[in-house]
Amino acid sequence: MTESPVELRADCTQCFALCCVALPFTRSADFAVDKAAGEPCGHLQDDFGCGVHGKLRDVGFRGCTSFDCFGAGQRVSQETFGGRDWRAHPETAGAMFQTLPVMRALHELLWYLADIEERPETASLHAEARALHREIGETAQKDADSLATVDLDGLRGSIGPFLTRASEMVRGSVGGRLKSRQHLQLMGANLSGARLSGVSFRGSLLIAADLRKADLRYADLLGADLRDADLSEADLTGAVFVTQSQINSARGSAGTALPARVERPAHW
Ligand code: SF4
């Protein structure tokens, strides 16, 4: 079964606030405090709500507004652990918290495959994408013990070449340019107004880069670090492998054109 885009998005109402407990924070511009993995955040309420929701950025928890679990939180809560929450069933807590990052990694791969499956430019790859989607989807249905043994690096390594082929197909369809700026340090770079359509920025550090009014149509942004990059008035129509977390961590405006798969952050 192929997950719909909705199922690859966080639904905090169905999750036992797993990211607020399982993941560690380091005191920084993103988090006002240090927190160890497995320790509930001090703002977490008894009903799994957030005590500072609505003013997260004002109180130093900007990182919480950037994070996206790709729908892993609700799946671990409701499917893997059958709706048993870690407070009422503390014996499940350790395994539940360890399962979250594994499920998130699987759902991230499903997100990229769904991106390929939805593009007309990659029609010749759809059958292969669906088969990979099914395979990973079946893995994600396993129990916590089985999920703990998933070789995520191996899985990423085996899917990587397929994602590359899809990216080249999309980028080649828009002017045939296959320029690469992969794995570059472009922190703070002035790329305002630059014509970057179809360029691959895989794994590049674009932290605080000035991308205002840049043409990023059909650019490959897989794994690019866009924290504090300014995307105001930039055009990301059709950009490849863009995640909600990347967009949430960047700056933008009402005039930023986003790929169809991501939503405009509330804080823009
Ligand atoms: S601040 Fe709120 S959203 Fe962030 S970890 Fe704490 S409880 Fe969760």
Proportion of residues in β-strands: under 5%
Mean model confidence by pLDDT: 94
Oligomer: single chain
Termini separation: 35 Å
Helix-residue proportion:
25-40%
What does this structure look like?
There is one protein chain. With 268 residues, the protein is an all-alpha fold. The chain folds into two domains: 5-23 and 67-171, no CATH class; 175-268, E3 ubiquitin-protein ligase SopA (Pectate Lyase C-like). It has helices at 19-22, 62-66, 72-80, 93-117, 126-140, 144-147, 152-172, 244-249. α3 crosses α4 (93-117), α4 (93-117) packs antiparallel against α5 and α4 (93-117) runs parallel beside α7. The two termini are 35 Å apart.
What's the SSE blueprint?
Layout: H1 19-22, H2 62-66, H3 72-80, H4 93-117, H5 126-140, H6 144-147, H7 152-172, H8 244-249
The chain binds iron/sulfur cluster.
Iron/sulfur cluster binds at residues 20, 41, 43-44, 50, 52, 56, 61, 64.
Relevant terms:
single chain; Pectate Lyase C-like; 2 domains; mainly alpha; binds iron/sulfur cluster
Give a quick precis of the structure.
The protein is an all-alpha fold. The protein has helices spanning 19-22, 62-66, 72-80, 93-117, 126-140, 144-147, 152-172, 244-249.
